[in-house]
Amino acid sequence: MTAGTVARQHTAPAHRRAIEGRSPWALGWMRLRRDRVAMFCLGVIVLIVLVAVFAPLTAHLTGHPPNEQYRSTGLTPDGLPRGPSRAFLFGTDDLGRDILVRIAYGARISLLVGVAATALTVVVGVVVGLAAGYLGGAVDTVLTRLIDVVLSVPFLLVAIALVSVTGPSMTVTVLVIGFFSWASMARIVRGQVLSLREREFVEAARSLGAGDARIMFVDVLPNVLAPVIVYTTLLIPVVIVVQATLSFLGLGLAPPTADWGGMLSESQAYYTTAWWFIVFPGAALLVTTLAFNLFGDGVRDAFDPRRDR
Amino acid sequence: MSTADPLLRLDGVRKHFPVRAGTLLSREQGRVYAVDGVDLEVHNGETLGLVGETGCGKSTLARCIARLYDLTAGTVWFDGRDITGLSRREMRPVRRDVQLVFQDPFGSLNPRRRVGSIIADPFAVHQLGTRADRKRRVQELMERVGLNPEHYNRFPAEFSGGQRQRIGVARALALRPKLLICDEPVSALDVSIQAQIINLLVDLQHDFRLTYIFISHDLSVVRHVSDRIAVMYLGRIVESAPTRDLFESTRHPYTRGLLSALQVPDPDAADSRERIILAGDLPSPTDPPSGCRFHTRCPKARADCVRTDPPLTGSPGRHQTACLFPLEIGEDLSLASPQVHDTVIGGAG
């Protein structure tokens, strides 16, 4: 009655147009490319990365190794830091070391810790979130309680206690930051997975005979990647600041390693007499986190799932 | 009638969902009796239409057959084998023979994967063929269901609803199943597109010798494709018969009610025929009515209907009805009035 009489229709013959589908990622990248602020920030981030990578070059060009103390040329006769000059573009610190070179080397620490701790957070958070959300039941109950426990532990107290036991090192810093930030990532992922699990394409995969692991990583994971990427880009600056905070409190890296938090801590006593000592490391930290944050905002605008449809 | 073993046989299939309360230590508060004792046979090469109102358990039954749910009770026999208790691993070879086409052409395709990869999923899951084989098979399938094979690199979002449903059909066909369960395959589509998809399914049935279970709440669609129709009400099958029988000699008052709601293309005929408007809503499946589940809405309900749960009588494959007072041929249901309250109050028979 309704069906039989309608003529069969075939799809149009292949037209010679690009058949390659545009992936949601490609579409997001196109949107990101049009975002001027995000692109500018990406440029700044690339610049900071280059500075970090080529930090030895700054040492070579200025002739000042990062931990070399220039007590005669780098300090005033009273033993105070010297301001910016031709020899020391960003001035010197309280021990007569070149602040410019130390900032370049400090960028290595900040980026390395930022990326390593964030990567740790993402891997642990995504795996835990996927398992809790997809497997549900007892697994979910246990993992959710664990997340609650981790989120309720006071971060700084534990960090101080841990560092005082193990001694300061980059590994400890990364582990401490990773340990305290995976939980919120796991929570975000779990929430997404809970709703994805009920979607019909998951049921379709199951009806084909796919196992849990395949469904979790092939079917569910690509659908939580957008919020994960957004959260990740916004997490990097937070981690950088946390790392600087730990160093500022003397819990970061053992001196004389140059890092931004440690430099700010050393500059405290001189903020009235040597503005460059506090301004340049502070500016480095500010510019880096600002660039990551604004870039993260751009990524969120470009990849936000709510803008997909 | 048919002496051959059915491809699929359900014996007393039940699926109850517990309703839990409490977060940490949950207690069972009640049960949703989604499917509550279904016996059914589906024979090789036939199309069984499964109709019923929204919420009557059609989709749950489909998922029980495909073993996406574990049964609460009962047995599912597929191809002469009891598949009820099979583990996931043991189910894998069976899954190649039983496939589903889903209702929602948007939700049933992973939005983050390319169409070629979605249709190739069955091959990947069952580790069949090389990469080149799979691509060739996928393109053949796409061509077969009326899609441009060159579009295999596109994403689901780049297709229309009807095209997406074709993708779902291609995926279900990839492993050459014996039984295809179509769960409302066209109800999310425009009417003009529905016809295309139905024609495609009918063509494919001939070419691939498929057996269909065709689930729909739209009787006109089911009538067009089905050899036999089973009518579900609140988790039970209330009537099942060859399509012509069901339409011409309806026995169950509920079926009659459904049929009278059908659109008739001739306005004069539409005016003159009987209209039975079923009163009220579908009762909650958490607390199904006593006796015959339809008694709360049945125009012919008697006191017995409240007490006695009528079994599905008649031989499988022929006309089966679960009703204590089935309709006679030519009986006008619009003249009937329920006599439940009278008997309860007055005690008269």
Proportion of helical residues of chain A: 55-70%
Order of helices and strands of chain B: EEEHEEHEHHHHEHEHEEHHHHEH
Please, how many domains of chain A? Answer: 1
Assign the structural class of chain A, choosing from mainly alpha, mainly beta, alpha/beta, alpha+beta, or little secondary structure: mainly alpha
Largest sheet report of chain A:
none
What are the low-pLDDT stretches of chain B, counting only 5+ consecutive residues below 50?
342-349
CATH architecture of chain A: Orthogonal Bundle
General description of the model:
The complex is a heterodimer of chains A (309) and B (349). Chain A has 309 residues and is mostly helical. Chain A is 69% helix and 0% strand. The radius of gyration of chain A is 26 Å and the shape is elongated. Chain B has 349 residues and is of the alpha/beta class. In chain B, the strands form two sheets. In chain B, strands 6-7-8-3-9-10-11 form a seven-stranded mixed sheet, with helices on both faces. In chain B, strands 2-1-4-5 form a four-stranded antiparallel sheet. Chains A and B meet through helix 8 and helix 9 of A and helix 2, strand 6, helix 4, helix 6 and helix 7 of B.
